[in-house]
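From the shared-data thread, chain only:
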Amino acid sequence: MKPKTIFESLFFAASEDAVDEIINNHQDIFKQENWVPFGGDEKFFGIVRGQQSSPIAALVEKVTNSIDAILMRKCFDAGIDPKAPNAPRTMEEAINKFFPEHKQWDLQTYRRKQAEEIQVVADGPPRNTSVIIYDNGEGQHPHEFENTFLSLVRGNKINIHFVQGKYNMGGSGALVFCGKRRYQLIGSKRHDNTGKFGFTLCRQRKIGDSSDTRRFSYFEYFKIDGAIPSFDSGEMDLKLFNRKFKTGTVIKLYSYQFPSGYSGFAQDLNQSLNEFLFEPVLPVYTVDKKERYPNNKVLELDLYGLKRRLEEDKNDYVESFFSEEYNDELFGKAKVTCYVFKPKLEKRNVKESKKIIGDRFFRNNMSVMFSVNGQVQGSYTSEFVTRTLKFNLLKDYLLVHCDCTEMKADFREELFMSDRERLKGGDESHMLRDYLGNKLRKSQLDEINRHRKESIDLESEDTSELIKSFAKNLPKDSELFKLLQNTLKLEEKKETKKPENGQKLKEKEDEKPFNPKRFPALFKLHGSKGGTSVINLPVNGEKTIKFDTDVEDDYFDRVEEPGELQLALLKIKRNNATGGDEQGTGKDISDYLNVVKSSPNKIFLN
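Structure, as tokens:
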């Protein structure tokens, strides 16, 4: 068999059983002498197994590597060394520099065209699904495979600031979810179309496969005569969506162990990837095949992060959302956005609404998400909502996103595990949890939770039939009824007061309608009556300052033309009681105060 034939036979094998058959039928090629330990050391087995505990989180790492590869390619195409001082310093800077048209991706046509550059494609039978991950990124020469795809803890990206990866290990986490034999095929060609197309097959060599008495398994990869197999290639039809393979990288994970309940890629997997990639810098395609689901009318679907889904779908699912921006000495900068879902969707009862919201937005049991550069790297369950915030009525209806990208580097490093899936159980994690709890309990969530509690009564669908029947038959002066009343805010129907002497009751004046503007025309200190306002702030204390404005609620959070609130610190003249009127000191206000900025909200208008 020639190298190209070997690659094609492996690539088009639908499952690990088909790969087994190929290997067994060609023992002269796949003999043990042609297999090398992954990372160059059998003892790296523990590093591979010690990464992501979730098959979805492990798959996200593959997609993240593809995003990095696209950005790297763009950097090389621009003639810039990714490690040079003139290279972008952040992912956001890289997107603005290499994709000046990226704002058009909010339009589906442009977004889907870009999403073709990174594809997650289903293969094999529905009950034994294999996964293909393709990107049109930088690609690698065959002789570089062992320093990139097949290496561990080399830190190839550690001095490149605009990519997510660092240690050259995250992409190997998916190996442990590749069936029972851990087969993974890697193929790649350099983006400039130089050199040959290289490929290798990875697998786990288990204890029982060895003739010696070793005590542990290890991962290994395939070579021919001491070199990564390669061949000259032009365009190859690898059954990708809407394109043929020219350069970049393609990886196949055989018989991938998805959690139960996963079927179509364009629905189930798409929703999960959207959760973990809360706000990715590049869109991605999830692609299923007609052979797998002949009756499925949606086989290809782009994804661009849960944030955009939440804010695009806010009229259907989200009742309200707001953000708070923290600038604190403890951790630096962080932005927290809270999304509160509707208790009842249109044409659905409460039970159905709760299930739909759970399936669409809480598939991975993440109620509080912590992300860096748009990728979720740790989370809390709804236990945070009930135990820390004590907002029990929001347990299944609140999603909190904490953007940790601009946190102090040292604090952030202590916050997350290297697998980018879990928070550490250290001091930083505990301090951040307490901080978020204290701030969010006093945020707009308190008002929202109060409104939810007041909206529950004996006639509401939110109360089960059993409780309604039970409560109605209790004596109104019993202790149990008082307990239910305090808990659920149950109120007896009050008789309407009859008018006396034929006079009509004065009707409640209609609330003055609020007509928000895209940009504020009004901004003044709440309660101010003119003149210079002085606010006393006690040492080590806190103070809430409110401003009246006429801007729309999502002013800070909207995708197009988001606004901001800037605070400045003026130099105060000691002998002038009228306040500061000279140029500032040059220091940021955060050098002196911990500042929290909250979204505008018409609920608090007077």
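Confidence is low (pLDDT under 50) at residues 490-495, 505-509.
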